[in-house]
Amino acid sequence: MTDLLSAPVLDAQLVADLVPLAARAAGLADAARSPHTRRAYARAWSGFEQWAGARGLVALPATPETLALYLTDRATAVSVATIEQELAAIVDAHRAADVACPTDSRDLQLVWKGIRRTYGQPPVGKAPLGVLELARMVAAVGDGPSGVRDRALLLLGFAGALRRSELVAVDVEDLVPNPDGYALQIRRSKTDAEGTGQKIGIPNGRRIETCPVRAVRAWLALAGIERGAVFRPVTRYGAIGSERLHDRAVAEILKRAAHAIGLDASVFSGHSLRAGLATEAVRAGVSERAIMAQTRHKSVVAFRGYVRTGSLFLENPAAALL
Q1: Architecture of the domain whose range is 33-119
Q2: Active-site entry in 190, 199, 246, 248
Q3: Whether 94 is catalytic
Q4: Which of 149, 214, 271, 296 is catalytic?
Q5: DSSP symbol at 227
Q6: Does 163 qualify as catalytic in the annotation?
Q7: Structural contact between residues 183 and 269, judged by C-beta atoms closer than 8 angstroms
Q8: Tens-place pLDDT, residues 103-138
């Protein structure tokens, strides 16, 4: 952008006219990544700069030797997955500065491969939430404003196999009622960053106490919410806020409900709702096609890894022989 605006063939008035357009273009370039990714890259790059500076090394452009030493040092402190994220941020900084990227070095690639082989561990996922556990949780949250909200959040998150960010992003306008439940419009998600949008069904539950549609309607009626964010903060005194609930609150609500029924809250996260729906549906014999339509997985391989242990004992050959 700056090269264009400084070109000698442009007169001053033309440059002045283009400045706002260039600023908008820069903003759109920033929007190519989510705010979370931008913050993560900034933290990772800052950490690498500080590490290099403390040892008298140059961070930009970094030599393959410098980066190899950094990766080796980090390998004993953090997970391989974390190092991979940091490496992506370092590569991004070099490309943004239009300088040679140290990851092109074969020697560095060998070091990185050795780190993955030596320190790599299978990811430790949080436990999926089972249907029976969910039913006990929503029965224990209480009937005050926070309990009514938490019941609606847990049941909608489970029924829709929603990610934390998708769950707190739901607006009243996204829930279209019909005789079978709600048609939920998911305007943007992790795998739909461009905002194409996806629609899923939230069916009426067979049991009143675990019906996501009834739970959401009860919360909206109690809170007097007619438009905008469905899930909002509730103070300890029962006052309902006007702002949108933060996605971190999903995990906090789930962990609090798990603790209330005597479960180990540390094994659950916000993703336990999404993983729980997928896992329980597999156990119930629902087809992969139908489950993937609800979870919006595009890859069967990714889906099967996501379900984790849910299908280990379904049609297990050993069960027919032993």
Answers
A1: Orthogonal Bundle (1.10)
A2: 190
A3: no
A4: 271
A5: S
A6: yes
A7: no
A8: 999 999 999 999 999 998 766 667 889 999 999 999
